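Quick start: load a record and inspect it. Here is Cysteine desulfurase family protein:
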Amino acid sequence: MIYFDNSATTKPYKEVLDSFMTVSSEYFGNPSSLHGLGGQAEKLLSQAREQVAKLLEVKPSEIYFTSGGTEGNNLAIKGAASVNRNRGRHLITSSVEHPSVRAAMEQLEQEGFEITYLPVDKTGRISAADVEKAIRKETILISIMQVNNEVGTVQPIEEVGNILKEYPAILFHVDAIQGIGKVPLSLTENRVDFCSISGHKFHGLKGTGALFIREGARLAPLFSGGSQERKMRSGTENVAGAVALAKALRITMSKSNSGTAKMMKIQSMLRTGLNGIEGIKINTPIENAAPHILNFSLKGMKSEVFIHALEQREIFVSTTSACSSKKKTPSKTLLEMGVPESSAESAVRISLSFDNTEAEAGTVIEAIEKTVNQLRKVMN
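Running the structure step on this input writes:
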């Protein structure tokens, strides 16, 4: 089996699974309980928070554990809008955000907020100048993803952060879910107020994540209940999940430099191979692109048919975002980039991990060429 769908989810590290099982079976107490078992769980939770904070180069008090990217994005966006609604009701985002951001913005629109959706160029990138032009007196939040989950375009987070240094009242949320461990991001230097990460994107477990909330930045919680996560996220804490998240992030960060270089080499190899196959057009840009994502279109071919044909060869890739791949609609990101609808409907995404190899890439290129030729014969 060759697994090239790592942007959808990654295989958990064995060490992550082991840590989850150990904590779940031996330190299963409720961290809020007063007895010793509860105290042990609370200590593990604190240690996990400290580890994540150290790896992200922020304070432990700025890390809040969540159930993943969707919750983190919703908490940052809706929480910021709620607590600042009397100061202003204008938010800025891009036209190519993940559904968890887009849907949160659309919900706020129904509640009377106004959203500016910034356009992207043919590479899928916004302009920092457009961000500044869109800012108004009533702007309260800007939310921009670090790495596009469909085509891998890296957005100008540093440039936007520099602009916002002149606008201290505007909050800045970054969805770093696809970039963590693969594309560097300094939360402090780039003036980020909120940042979402999701464990299963870097070999952690599904249902685990974290939200960075800069000290002094305020959010209204989404959940009502107890006072867990400093009243920001009520509900009994997933201690084993938090420990597993910290473990996955530590391993990923330790492999980041060598792993990223390896993925860049494999991505280049794939790009060269795909360029040599008739009818394939690569949508991922060469510049300002993450090392692990490569998106391409198949002329005159349905991507779903191609995906299943590759699966028969035990090669797993995907169409668009895993969150919207079953809707069978053209990629919104590609349409926003100016890609024709027919090409957007035939898009395929390859996404790598540190564990993929050049040998796998060679096999995949060969399989893609054979599959394309076979499907064309059937179609003709």
